[in-house]
Predict the 3D structure of the following.
Amino acid sequence: MAEQRPVAGLTSGSTETLRESLSQPRLDDDLDVLTMTEEVRAFAHDRGAIILAHNYQLPEVQDVADFVGDSLELARKAASVPDASVIVFCGVHFMAETAAILNPEKPVVLPDIEAGCPLADMVTPHDVEDLKRQYPGAPVVSYVNTSADVKAVSDICCTSSNAVSVVRSLAASGADTVIFVPDKHLAAFVARQVPDVHIVPGNGFCPTHARFTLEDVERARKEHPEAIVVCHPECVEDVQLACDYVLSTGGMARLPSEVTASEFVVGTEVGMLYRLRTMYPECAFYPLNERAICPNMKKITLPRVLHALTTLEPIVTVPEETARLARSAIERMLVVR
Ligand code: SF4
């Protein structure tokens, strides 16, 4: 059996954890990575493709991408790529759907069509219609981590970066009750920031972020007493309250440039550590829990990106009427600052 190469940017412990959790084909050594990276770039150039990658992607996938970011940054980028003839989306299915909705004339390729999001599967259009009946007149905010079908029955979308601003914008228009689906922990975070609005939460959660516990925070503070402890708003509320900052991955990427600290404990999917270490080599970043790995995000491997570029498959499509309705909710979000 070929020796598996270490994944750059992760601690040896988390690399082992990552290996254990994944069952995808992977590259044998750094030469394979370099060769395949060059092939991917050459094919992308020939195809006129832009490669977008989420912060949770494998290091070699982040490295080959034209743009790496959080959900909001990727949605904005996907809405402004006039020169690209193909979008290769290295993330999970709802992200590729969002890109397809914003670019109906362009093929959007998701290198592994099985890369889904369990959180997005925790709410259906039927659930949203039920909540609308229970709270007539209340606007529906759907997290981008939802299917196009759910977005199509929502008033506005949000990401973890702009959820508070989105709800504040609704409050400024007179809403005193807001339906917020599907993530109950993000909903709790928003409710603390916008106390004047009654937030009706969905019942979903991210299984990867649910791994973080108060004990993780206490242990991190003992092991790294000088470090700032930051977590994602998809973490449970107890963990959010115990951390120094609760930020989207985009916010985490900006934090080291905004504070004087040089050590950070990071409570989100471990792929973010690679992004942070690449951006701030002078700082130290530790995982809050090195087992916080999203197996769906890790389905996108460099060989699969190459295969997607050579075949232009699998393509993610959204039915026209669903896309029209969902686009309105996404575009309404994109103008909120
Ligand atoms: S980290 Fe959580 S919310 Fe993000 S894609 Fe994975 S399961 Fe979904």
Q: What stands out?
A: The pocket of iron/sulfur cluster is lined by residues 92, 117-119, 145, 206-209, 269, 294, 296-297 (CB under 6 Å). Residues 1-25 have pLDDT under 50 and may be disordered. The domain at 209-287 is CATH 3.40.50.10800 (Rossmann fold).
